[in-house]
């Protein structure tokens, strides 16, 4: 019974730890590889959330396509370590202090909102008819939803992809 | 069944980690990676809520977020390459031409 909780803690710890190392690491190459570990752990969590399609998308598109793009750029620019330059002259203790206050506010706001949301969600869960896991897992239901209710958003997404493709080519082109 | 609050807390931790990276790192590529971490935190919250509400809409939105993340990564990395060509550096503090 508690297996799912145990697995959640295991993969959650892997995801959080790997993300922390991504952020704290000095070497961009290590950061990219650790982010792939974090994505894999999140995919496992998605399977626990009865969303196998999301897990597969996470692995194929995120860990597969996007991270390979990042790896290409890291290797292309030969950026194996970060410049250890001193902080610019403009950064004094004033802005740092303001940033600290903002960070504390962000954490407080997140904790407040999530406590409320979790309470509301659990209430909904006990009040509602309960989710049908088979309907949630089915890719057919997902496709039906995607191509009927959200078909406009889907088409707009394809325009976005074309714009991004053309934009990437234009930006990275060598001017001559 | 894992309660919704657990997923939301993990999501908040990941989001805060990503935000920290955006502000702390002095490397444009790592900043982009931190944004990916933040997007993943949001995806996790969407899917957890979708499961709780018994709807596939969470997964549909996750699909759109992944698409936008792919577009963002392509454009962002193209910008990084263009910037590197001009300044021979990846430190965002170097790119201050638009600052007044």
Overview of this structure, please?
The complex is a heterodimer of chains A (176) and B (100). Chain A is an all-alpha fold. Among the domains of chain A are: 1-81, NADH-ubiquinone/plastoquinone oxidoreductase chain 6, subunit NuoJ (Four Helix Bundle (Hemerythrin (Met), subunit A), Up-down Bundle); 138-176. Chain A has seven helices and no strands. Chain A has helices at residues 3-24, 28-48, 52-76, 93-127, 133-137, 139-148, 151-172. The longest helix of chain A has 35 residues, at 93-127. The radius of gyration of chain A is 21 Å and the shape is globular. The termini of chain A are far apart. In chain A, 22% of the residues are buried. The model of chain A has no long low-confidence stretch (mean pLDDT 83). Chain B is mainly α. Chain B has a domain at 27-89: Helix Hairpins. Classes of the chains: A mainly alpha (176), B mainly alpha (100). Chains A and B meet through helix 1, helix 2, helix 3, helix 4 and helix 6 of A and helix 1, helix 2 and helix 3 of B.
Kindly list the characteristics that best describe this protein.
heterodimer; A: mainly alpha; Four Helix Bundle (Hemerythrin (Met), subunit A); B: 100 residues; mainly alpha; Helix Hairpins; 78% helix; elongated
Task: Give a quick summary of the entry.
The complex is a heterodimer of chains A (176) and B (100). By secondary structure, chain A is mainly α.
SSE arrangement:
The complex is a heterodimer of chains A (176) and B (100).
Chain A: H1 3-24, H2 28-48, H3 52-76, H4 93-127, H5 133-137, H6 139-148, H7 151-172
Helix pairs in contact in A: 1-2, 2-3
Chain B: H1 4-24, H2 28-53, H3 57-87
Helix pairs in contact in B: 1-2, 2-3
Helix segment tally of chain A:
7
Query: What structural category characterises the helix and strand content of chain B?
Result: mainly alpha
Stretches with pLDDT under 50, minimum 5 residues of chain B: none
- The fold-level CATH name of the domain at 1-81 in chain A is Four Helix Bundle (Hemerythrin (Met), subunit A)
Strand count of chain B: 0
Beta content of chain B: under 5%
Structural class of chain A: mainly alpha
């Amino acid at each position: 019974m508690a297996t799912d909780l145990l697995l959640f803690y295991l993969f959650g710890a892997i995801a959080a730890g790997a993300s922390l190392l991504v952020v704290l690491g000095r070497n961009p190459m290590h950061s990219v590889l650790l982010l792939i570990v974090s994505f894999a752990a999140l995919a496992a969590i998605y399977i626990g959330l009865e969303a196998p399609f999301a897990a597969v998308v996470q692995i194929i598109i995120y860990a597969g396509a996007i991270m390979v793009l990042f790896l290409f750029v890291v290797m292309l620019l030969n950026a194996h370590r970060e410049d250890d330059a001193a902080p610019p002259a403009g950064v004094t203790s004033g802005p740092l202090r303001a940033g600290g206050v903002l960070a504390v506010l962000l954490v407080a706001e997140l904790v407040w909102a999530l406590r409320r949301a979790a309470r509301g969600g659990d209430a909904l869960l006990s009040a509602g008819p309960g989710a049908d896991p088979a309907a949630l897992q089915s890719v057919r239901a997902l496709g039906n939803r995607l191509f009927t209710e959200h078909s406009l958003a889907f088409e707009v997404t394809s325009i976005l992809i074309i714009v991004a493709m053309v934009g990437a080519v234009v930006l990275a082109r060598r001017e001559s | 069944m894992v309660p919704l609050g657990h997923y939301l807390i993990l999501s908040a931790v990941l989001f805060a980690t990503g935000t920290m990276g955006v502000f702390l790192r002095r490397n444009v590529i790592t900043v982009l990676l931190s944004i990916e971490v933040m997007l993943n935190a949001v995806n996790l919250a969407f899917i957890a809520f979708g499961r709780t509400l018994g709807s596939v809409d969470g997964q549909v939105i996750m699909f759109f977020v992944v698409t936008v993340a792919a577009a963002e990564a392509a454009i962002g990395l193209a910008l990084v390459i263009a910037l590197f060509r001009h300044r021979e550096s990846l430190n965002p503090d170097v790119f201050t031409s638009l600052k007044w």
